[in-house]
Specification:
Layout lengths: L8 H13 L3 H14 L4 H13 L3 H14 L4 H13 L3 H5 L1 H8 L3 H11 L12 H15 L3 H14 L4 H13 L3 H14 L4 H13 L3 H8 L10 H13 L3 H14 L4 H13 L3 H13 L5 H13 L3 H14 L4 H13 L3 H14 L4 H8 L9 H10 L6 H17 L6 H15 L4 H14 L2 H7 L10 E4 L6 H9 L4 E3 L6 H14 L8 H15 L5 E4 L8 H7 L4 E6 L2 H10 L13 H21 L5 E4 H6 L1 H11 L46 H8 L6
Parallel strand pairs: 1-3, 1-4, 2-3, 4-5
Length: 716
């Protein structure tokens, strides 16, 4: 055996493979042993030693080598396949049949795991033992058809095989997977349910079924399907990965990322898991890390349109707008008819202040999808529309169609209300707004009593004793500036002023701190522990996340809307934080909220004027509570005062943030910062007062709002 150093391994491996292929097995073995002496964990060398031993009929030596290879690479399909073939040829079918269950725990991907089960007759969940020899060969052929994307052919073959040999879960699963790949969801679901009835322990069917459910927007059902597959330690990597994906779709990014990190630790080369984690990180407001995962997944060939779009969004939010645009340019050049790519580029243009370029893309997208309500809304909210603008006539014509889906009609109604207001046709605004908000409420029902109850729990949990026990013990590793208040109250304007300071980075709506504070409130309210919540840990988690999200930033603003509800708790977690509450005339605030479309399922109180008025009163009651118990914790800024005489208010604002005055803070509209907000167009303009007392034009339409605002019944 020749002694070598690690740097010589590639050359020796090349020589060994050449000798092996030339039939010089002894020479190849000597070289592989030299390689393994330098690196005993090199799976490739153990694998080739196993192949040579198997070829000589030395089953024990082959099995030993393959096991060493699996210890180094437990999720490598070729090793499992070679080990199975060796055992079967040696007349050890029982040992071979045990392999799929081991491979499943090791994190072997679903398709090679299914093929292994079919080859060995073992249980990776699949009852392949009921197939005869011809049936196994046919099933393996069907798996190959699926891998080649020949789904219709695989469906026909699986249906025929199921008729000849009924009751085999593996075959039924192939049938379901082939149907799902063709978009035949109802038929696929029927097949998946049949597969699980045939074998409830068939993990591959649970995985395939869950993937289809998530793709169909049914993540909660996917979680229920996956739950029985969870084993000790959390289940196989693929199961944990899909569970993480479902949790991400359900909005629980922390739990999702815990599952996905664990899955990737078990199967670090599974690019689907990287893709899922990238999407969860993007939703969690971690675009830099998300871009890393998504670039890896797309680079490995998982370049689906949805994943490409998520990568573009991650790049843009990570401050890599030029790369995001360049990638979109390439995608659109390859397929200029994809409406979603055109719309995404328009969205990116709008967020970087390139409104003319955005409209060019939106018009091209509309030409391809004339019913696209979101496209019209993006145009309407990107500029003023005169009454004779051709886009307005096109929107009205589309809105009048009987076959227009509710989702598109809702977007168009918001757009037409904006167009009517631009044209000063005030009598036409509210019919559109009422229709738009009614459709929103239909899609996302709401009960304001739940929000009022949550607000009461907040005020009950923050006691003088809690403040005494916890004040000054929070985390001091960062000093963010929180700008908060109701939507459309002027928070974007205030954040832009602060973010124009040379020491400040504008973070936008980060939504990272309040989930931890909300959990602390619920624990306090439930009496879950005699000890106070660990506010220092909550603050530390936030600061660590902020440092990863904005590396090198001195001070970061966080414009999360819901921070106002947890002001005192935020100061307990982050004693050095500066907090600014922006307030505006309730009639103007609520009107502006009612006029704007928020992401589905958010701000559900906004869709009904009476609920909106009650919610505003609840907001005011919470601000009043914090003003009473901890007035020095925050600064209140009046939108009307700021727009009437900007400089004194801006100076007061900057001083509260602990910063020296800079004249650039009044020239915020000249900045190039990307703005992800409904106010994106407005913040590119100097301070204006045209929206002050805007409610007066609609006083008659706002009667339900006024009645709710004037209700003097205590709300907390």
């Amino acid at each position: 055996m020749l002694p070598i150093n690690p740097s010589q391994i590639p050359a020796f491996y090349k020589r060994a493979r050449a000798a092996q292929q030339a039939g010089r097995a002894d020479e190849a073995l000597r070289l592989y042993r030299s390689i393994l002496a330098a690196n005993p964990k090199l799976a490739e060398a153990h694998f080739q030693v196993g192949r040579i031993a198997a070829g000589r009929g030395d089953t024990d030596a082959a099995v030993a080598a393959f096991e060493k290879a699996l210890a180094a690479k437990p999720a490598e399909p070729a090793i499992w396949s070679a080990l199975a073939d060796t055992l079967l040829k040696a007349g050890r079918p029982e040992d071979a049949a045990a392999l799929p269950a081991r491979a499943q725990k090791a994190g072997l991907a679903a398709e090679p795991l299914a093929a292994l089960g079919l080859r060995t007759g073992g249980r990776s969940g699949a009852r392949a033992a009921t197939l005869d020899t011809a049936g196994r060969k046919e099933a393996q052929r069907l798996v190959q058809l699926m891998s080649a994307g020949r789904f219709a052919e695989a469906e026909r073959g699986a249906a025929a095989l199921a008729r000849r040999q009924p009751g085999v879960a593996a075959v039924t699963n192939i049938l379901g997977s082939a149907r799902a790949a063709q978009g035949k969801r109802d038929a696929a679901e029927k097949a998946f349910r049949a597969a699980l009835a045939q074998d409830p322990e068939f993990v591959e069917a649970r995985i395939a079924y869950a993937e289809m459910l998530i793709g169909a927007g049914r993540p909660a059902e996917a979680q229920r399907i996956l739950a029985p597959a969870a084993r000790e330690g959390g289940g196989p990597a693929r199961v944990r990965g899909l569970s993480g994906r479902a949790l991400s779709e359900l909005g629980d990014q922390r739990a999702a990322l815990a599952e996905l990190d664990a899955a990737l630790k078990a199967a670090p080369k599974d690019m689907r898991l990287r893709a899922y984690r990238g999407q969860a990180r993007l939703r969690d407001g971690r675009p830099i890390e998300a871009a890393d995962d998504l670039e890896a997944a797309v680079g490995a060939g998982l370049a689906t349109p949805a994943l490409q779009l998520d990568l573009v969004r991650a790049l843009g939010r990570a401050g890599r707008e030029a790369e995001a645009l360049a990638r979109l340019d390439r995608l659109i050049a390859e397929d200029p008819d994809r409406v979603d790519w055109l719309a995404e580029r328009a969205h990116l243009y709008q967020q970087t202040g390139q409104f003319a370029a955005a409209e060019t893309d939106l018009q091209a997208a509309i030409a391809r999808n004339p019913l696209g309500g979101a496209l019209y809304r993006m145009i309407a909210f990107g500029r003023k529309l005169p009454a004779d603008d051709p886009v307005v006539a096109q929107m009205e014509e589309t809105y009048a169609r009987d076959d227009l889906p509710d989702a598109e009609r809702r977007e168009l109604a918001f757009a037409l209300a904006k167009a009517a207001e631009d044209a000063r046709q005030h009598d036409r605004v509210f019919p559109y707004l009422n229709a738009a908000n009614a459709l929103t409420r239909k899609a996302w029902p709401y009960d304001i009593a739940a929000d009022i109850a949550a607000a009461r729990r907040i005020t009950e949990a923050f006691t003088a004793e809690l403040r005494t026990a916890c004040e000054g013990q929070g985390h001091t590793g960062c000093q963010p500036i929180f700008v908060t208040g109701l939507p459309r109250s002027g928070t974007t304007l205030v954040e832009q002023i602060i973010a124009s300071h040379s020491r400040v980075t504008g973070g936008g709506e980060l939504a990272r701190l309040t989930p931890g504070l909300a959990a602390a409130v619920e624990a306090l309210h439930a009496g879950a522990s005699d000890a106070s919540p660990d506010f220092a840990a909550i603050g530390r988690d936030y600061c660590d996340w902020l440092a990863a999200r904005f590396p090198g930033a001195d001070i970061v603003t966080d414009k999360s809307i819901t921070t106002y509800a947890y002001l005192g708790f935020a100061k307990l977690a982050l004693p050095g934080a500066r907090i600014v509450v922006v307030r505006r005339d309730p009639r103007d605030t609520c009107l502006s909220i009612y006029k704007n479309m928020f992401p589905g399922g958010t701000h559900r109180y906004a869709d009904d004027l009476a609920d909106l008025g009650t919610y505003y009163r609840m907001h005011e009651a919470l601000i009043g509570f914090w003003r009473d118990v901890w007035p020095e914790a925050f600064l209140e800024i009046s939108y009307e005062a700021l727009t009437a005489d900007p400089e004194p208010e801006a100076r007061r604002l900057i001083a509260h943030c602990g910063l020296d005055w800079e004249d650039g803070c009044l020239n915020f509209h000249e900045g190039k910062r990307r703005v992800e907000t409904l106010s994106g167009a407005q913040v590119r303009q100097p301070i204006y007062r045209s929206s002050v007392s805007a409610w007066e034009k609609y006083a008659g339409d706002l009667a339900p709002l006024f009645a709710a605002l004037e209700d003097d019944t205590p709300i907390l």
